[in-house]
Amino acid sequence: MKKTLVEATINGETVEFLCEPRQSLLETLRDVLELTGSKEGCLTGDCGACTVLLDGHAVCSCLVLGVEAQGKKIDTVEGLATQGVLSVLQNKFLEHASLQCGICTPGFLISAKSLLDRNPKPTEPEVRYALAGNLCRCTGYDKIVKAVLDAAADIRSQGEGKAAAR
Amino acid sequence: MPTVVIPALLRKFTGGIERVSVPGKSIRELVLHLGQQFPGIDQQLLVHGDIRPSIAVSIDGEIATGGVLDPVNEDSEVHFIPALGGGLV
Amino acid sequence: MAASTTTDNFKVIGTRPIRHDGVDKVTGRAKYGADYAFPGMLHGKVLRSPHAHANIKSIKIDKALKLPGVKAIVTSKDLPQAENKLEQSGEMVINPMYLSMNILAHDKVLYDGHAIAAVAATSPHIAEEALRLIEVEYEVLPPVMTVDVATKPGAPILLKDLRNKEEGDKQTNVAQHYQFKRGDVEAGFKAADYVIEREFNTAMVHQGYIEPHNAVGIYNSDGQATIYCSTQGAFDVRSLSAQVLGMPVGHIKVVPAEIGGGFGGKTTIYLEPLSVLLSKKTGAPVKLVMSRSEVLRASGPTSGSKIKVKMGATKDGKLVAAEIWMAYEAGAFPGSPVGAGAMCIIAPYTVENFLIDAYDVVVNRPKTAAYRAPGATNAAFASETIIDELAEKCGIDPIDFRLKNAVKEGDAQVVGPPFKRIGLIQTLEGIKNSPHYKSKLTGKFRGRGVASGFWFNAGMQSSATVNIHADGTASVVTGSPDIGGSRASMAMITAEVLGLPVTDVRPITADTDSIGHTDVTGGSRVTFATGMAVYEAAKDAERQLIERAAKVWEKKPDEVEFRDGKLHAKGNGVPPMSIKQLAPRFPRTGGPITGRASVNARGVGPGFATTLVDVEVDPDTGKVQILRCTVAQDAGKAIHPSYVEGQMQGGTAQGLGWALNEEYFYDDKGTLRNSGFLDYRMPTCLDLPMIETVVIEEANPGHPLGVRGVGEVSIVPPVAAVANAIYRAVGVRMLETPMSPPKLLKAMLKHRDSTKHSAAAD
CB neighbours of C246 closer than 8 A, spacing ≥ 6? Predict the structure, then answer.
């Protein structure tokens, strides 16, 4: 099958790659671009392990084709840290022990980031609703929800701190 | 003398008796003497000269790991129970 | 060894450090099995049977081989002959013939999804296309889908060589019969004031790990093979693969990748020998990954079951007799956890008279594999419901009823030996004292239920080494794949013994060449048994440190002691020396220091849990909402409390899914109709509340730190707790799982009709 040349912005960098029309964005990220942080759990969009941001929207990359990335902005778990410094969300997941096997963690981090970008002050039900598309089998979600609520509070107070400092 | 508690499905070898006193200083000796007292029961417990892998031995309340090699005391109580691997069957 | 109580002043144990693999896991750097890639790697796919039960008349692969990009195809003809007998493979007892038949079907397929052939090609898409070109001729046979059908006289026989001891040479689908007996049940029931007898049915469910099975096999022309895979037990993969492939165990190296969940389902092999076989045929590394559909159809769910329980109590609330018949689906080959279920079903209680008969039955479903406390959840659903009913009949609070009958130290277990120190009573009291229990539950269609559960926990073999580095920091190497955060606990134990900050100890999970034999991560055994090996290896390193310091100080070793992370010379004022200060002296005092230990762990402490749950039932749809949930569990000693809580919460969540929605749905042809996460409905974030935990610490006297395995038992009570809560909410006793909306609604409507009629009849 003939490959298509695609240009996209991935984690802030302009990237060119070749992929077959039948390859999903997930497969393209993992097998072509060697960004294996996004995981394959079901290939039917039910588990959220492959969640990435596509032009700022959380999507299941298993339901997007690689060729659809043309001209788009994609953010994966590999882009959450800034020059190696973990984001607030990433740190909170570690502090709260919100991961056991960790396979769902990349997807949750992206979904949680998407939530907090839209809604900096979510309630617990709002957090649970936003994360309902990500399955976790290890934790029962308790510590994940606590981490996201704690991260939201932290980010808000950091923002307030910055505002006060001005 | 040590006491051996006979598993339910092997009580047909002992005429229904659940607890038997058997002499011996090791599991090997206990099984040997059990077989002498109740012919055939030792074949159910052993394969290739050691306790069958599907059987676990409990000595004085603790699962023992030495098979026929484990020592027993004069007042020891020994049970033979189905073995379960860790999280396995 | 006397265990410490929880009042010991540990410096590291009991704290909550960040796990050492944490950064890798939140940045996507951690390598799971499907993340591996090698130069020239091919991709494999497996052809699977669409029929539940059929003879294979022929397999034609020539068309598929001609597809450009296809490099090799294998069938069972490429595997060596396997013997039909029971054999020890590591700690497991297996039948090599059945193991081989499950990897690639021989002359028969036994379940929808049964592997028939495997293809290696230059891309996974080409491999899938090739599957469509393989021609298989089947002679379809009637499917045998339940224990009822399998045990009916004249039922189609699945395995022509299967015999059980009691039926002699007769072909059968009943693989095994277990029995446990004490006292006189008839006399017991005669003495009872209340006797309740019910039949329960539970549906087959899957462990539901998010990561599908995977394997990369690399076969070298010198006969040495390497397998990279996500597994709970690298040594089991090695010995089972060697068995199937007819290779020497020592010629296979298994490298355990990070693993995305297992819960018992990744303790056996499916793709691993195929990856090596295809690599051998092609000369290239070959990667296979299951799709979600394949995972559900063709890995190892746990048994559906039929359980009949009859229990009797005197009116003061004392259990006096139990008679139980249970049959579990083994799947296509023998080996359901019915024996374990039989040993767990009344394990939390002292019952003087009981008779338990348990049967392992083959059916045309995938061969069952372990699922977190295998067999116990099915059993507890049945027994804990009856206990609840008896408590109600006696007019006694359900927790108090359990307290009246609860086993404690010295009581005889169902299997005979007396318990050592255990914490069941403390978990019941923990629930009684919880904020949840003390809160009032008000509102219509709401109910509160409680249940308890038991699991043995395992000991088995583990090895560990502790290497002290040139800068005085250390690594601790074990063979236990980390499925839940255990490597942090291994580092914590090492750090505690050596008086090091936990960030100065690096925990490593090694491959089968780099560490001594270590049994599977499962059975709630890692913190217990591998922790024991780690403790002893650290102590071994400590002994060597003492010897080296003695050499440096020109004293005898018994004049030196190790205390608070430093070496001290007894007596006169020689200043103490830290490990960091001693480390540069290693070369001249004898060389590097490596502490080592191997155990076949004894002193296992069994686990108990009690779960309390509040539900609200929608009277129009039968949907159950979990309002509040608390689980109390005895951990012995919580090395890392966050991960102990995590195990309790995770097991509880799985139990709640098992209770409310999860089931395998086969049609009448034996085809699995819900082989995806949409219709195999596991709990999402929105389905669950926070899960409150009460960690009890009744130290296990068999472990140097008092540790008791915690990974499994929390999954045992929730199904019954939910059933008991539903009863209090809407007056319906559910006798089958899942208690999903259609089933509960049907039961509620039936109940409403019958109460209407009896009201009308008054």
Answer: C79, C80
